[in-house]
Design goal:
Order of helices and strands: EEEHEEHEEEEEEEEEEEEEEEEEEE
Helix content: under 10%
Distance between the termini: 44 Å
Largest sheet: 6 strands, parallel
Number of helices: 2
Strand content: 25-35%
């Protein structure tokens, strides 16, 4: 909720955009950090979320939502009105082992593979082409991107008596606790023994490798 609203109160907003001093639309909304105050005062139309605006810089065709944290307010706006939502659904092209325990309100995308012994919590999203290897445990409200592999074999070798490198069998698993979010094209290897643990609320970007 804004601390103060300056300008036209009844205004429709069509879409959010990045800060644009050349914007010519009245029905868009932008957020502006203090760092870009000099650009804020150049904007002539639209709705602006900002932490301050001096009276001499106010223009008639702008509405100013004065908040403590503009970036946080913009996030709430996007989440409340513009966020893409995925309804619970399991695509027919996914391959899920019969031993897998599935929670409620799950989205499992196209060509997802979930191997034996996995446990999937409630309100989980697993996007297209992702592979969940055997015995992985996934908590509630977890989001996993596309083309990601959870629970693959770790890169662990030891020399044999002839000096040749031999892969050490990895018989552990991966545990993703509640509210974990993982991007696209990311790999998380299972442990050699025990579990590779991703603790609750951890956020992992795209194209990340997390070792065993």
């Amino acid at each position: 909720k804004p601390n103060t609203v300056l300008g036209e109160m009844e205004r429709s907003v069509r879409e959010p955009i990045g800060l644009n001093i050349d914007n010519d639309d009245n029905d868009v909304i932008m957020w502006v950090s203090n760092k870009y105050y000099s650009d804020l005062i150049k904007v002539k139309k639209g709705v602006l979320i900002c932490s301050e605006i001096k009276a001499e810089h106010i223009v008639p065709d702008c509405t100013y939502l004065i908040v403590t944290n503009p970036r946080s307010a913009f996030r709430i706006l996007l989440e409340g009105f513009f966020k893409e939502t995925l309804e619970p659904h399991i695509f027919d092209s996914s391959k899920i082992d019969k031993s897998v325990i599935l929670g409620n309100n799950i989205f499992i995308g196209q060509n997802v593979v979930i191997e034996n012994g996995c446990q999937i919590g409630n309100n989980v999203v697993i996007n297209h082409n992702t592979i969940i290897k055997s015995n992985t445990i996934i908590g509630d409200f977890v989001k996993i991107g596309s083309n990601t592999i959870i629970g693959g074999v770790g890169f662990g070798y030891e020399k044999d008596e002839k000096g040749n490198y031999k892969l050490i069998p990895h018989i552990g698993n991966v545990v993703l606790e509640d509210f974990v979010e993982i991007g696209n094209c990311t790999n998380i290897d299972r442990a050699l023994l025990g579990s590779t643990l991703i603790a609750e609320h951890v956020k992992i970007d795209n194209i990340v490798q997390i070792a065993h």
